[in-house]
């Protein structure tokens, strides 16, 4: 399903539904459409979904890092005059959500992390970026999912375009270095709000042991596994993801 992209000031975002706000944060190679299943489901349950486009490739190189992306999220939340938000992040989006919460925990009601970076991740591997080799990029895109068919031609084309764009490659590497530099291990015990961890058992980017470590370090977290699922659970098995999250909201009265 396609949704109208709203453009206000420096922000481009999707907004759908009314009620408790959930701000959704996409990953480094992710797009807003990765969350179509979530956008279709939760507005019917009394939630307002907001999905901003993160300025990963438009910030100056010196500002291309997790900290400044978290600052952008704060500016977006301020712009929308939101309080008591739920943050939902996949991959880099999860890392940004964690960093935002580290700085502004009083403004966050709950966190949902799926395949989140922040502790450890395998990116494109030592051979990244291998520019010009479409089949190589296709295989890397497929490896993100348990079912390689989820990596549609559109997804592969987007990744291929990114790794063949010199500016985007430089920004991607800057973000990767920033993610390592902004390791959250020491900060996680101080994040005391409810956290829902939903993880693919077959995630090769942020493997299962990463989820276990998040669960151990986050004092108020619940961990749920999805079998036969890779790095982007909300995209690969959206129905299962939504059911788990909906049940967790009920359990935690969120």
Helix/strand layout:
Blueprint: E1 6-8, E2 11-16, E3 20-25, H1 36-41, E4 47-52, H2 66-79, E5 85-90, H3 92-104, E6 108-114, H4 134-143, H5 153-163, H6 166-181, E7 195-200, H7 208-217, E8 221-226, H8 233-236, H9 238-252
Parallel strand pairs: 3-4, 3-5, 5-6, 6-7, 7-8
Antiparallel strand pairs: 1-2, 2-4
Helix pairs in contact: 2-3, 4-5
Could you provide a short overview of the structure?
The protein is an alpha/beta fold.
Notes on the structure:
By secondary structure, the chain is an alpha/beta fold. The chain has a single domain, classed as Rossmann fold (3-Layer(aba) Sandwich), CATH 3.40.50. The chain is built from 9 helices and 8 strands. The chain has helices at 36-41, 66-79, 92-104, 134-143, 153-163, 166-181, 208-217, 233-236, 238-252, and strands spanning 6-8, 11-16, 20-25, 47-52, 85-90, 108-114, 195-200, 221-226. It has an 8-stranded mixed sheet, with helices on both faces. Helix 2 (66-79) packs across helix 3 (92-104). Mean pLDDT is 92; it is low at 124-129.
Question: How large, in whole angstroms, is the Cα Rg?
Answer: 17 Å
Beta strand count: 8
Q: What does the main sheet amount to? A: 8 strands, mixed
Number of domains: 1
Form type: globular
If classified by CATH, what would the architecture be? 3-Layer(aba) Sandwich
What fold name goes in the CATH topology slot?
Answer: Rossmann fold
Determine the N-to-C terminus distance.
26 Å
Give the count of helical stretches.
9
Structure class: alpha/beta
> Strands of the largest sheet, in order across it?
1-2-4-3-5-6-7-8
């Amino acid at each position: 399903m396609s949704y109208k992209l709203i453009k206000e000031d420096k922000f481009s975002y999707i907004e759908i539904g009314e009620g408790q706000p959930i701000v959704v944060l996409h990953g480094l190679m992710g797009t807003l459409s990765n969350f179509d299943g979530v956008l279709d489901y939760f507005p019917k349950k009394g939630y307002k979904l907001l999905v901003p486009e993160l300025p990963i490739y438009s910030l100056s190189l010196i500002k291309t890092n997790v900290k400044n992306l978290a600052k952008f999220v704060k500016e977006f939340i301020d712009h929308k005059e939101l309080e008591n938000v739920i943050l939902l992040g996949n991959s880099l989006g999860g890392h940004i959500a964690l960093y935002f919460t580290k700085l502004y925990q009083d403004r966050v009601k709950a966190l949902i992390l799926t395949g989140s970076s922040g502790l450890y991740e395998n990116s494109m591997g030592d051979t990244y970026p291998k520019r010009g080799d479409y089949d190589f990029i296709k295989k890397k895109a497929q490896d993100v999912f348990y079912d390689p068919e989820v990596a549609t031609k559109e997804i592969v084309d987007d990744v291929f375009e990114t790794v063949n764009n010199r500016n985007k490659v430089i920004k991607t590497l800057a973000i990767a270095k920033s993610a390592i530099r902004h390791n959250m291990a020491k900060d996680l015990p101080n994040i005391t709000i409810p956290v829902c961890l939903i993880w693919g058992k077959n995630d090769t980017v942020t493997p299962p042991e990463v989820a276990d470590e998040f669960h151990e370090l986050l004092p108020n977290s619940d961990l749920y596994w999805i079998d036969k699922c890779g790095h982007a659970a909300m995209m690969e098995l959206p129905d299962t993801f939504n059911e788990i999250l909906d049940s967790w909201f009920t359990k935690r009265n969120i």
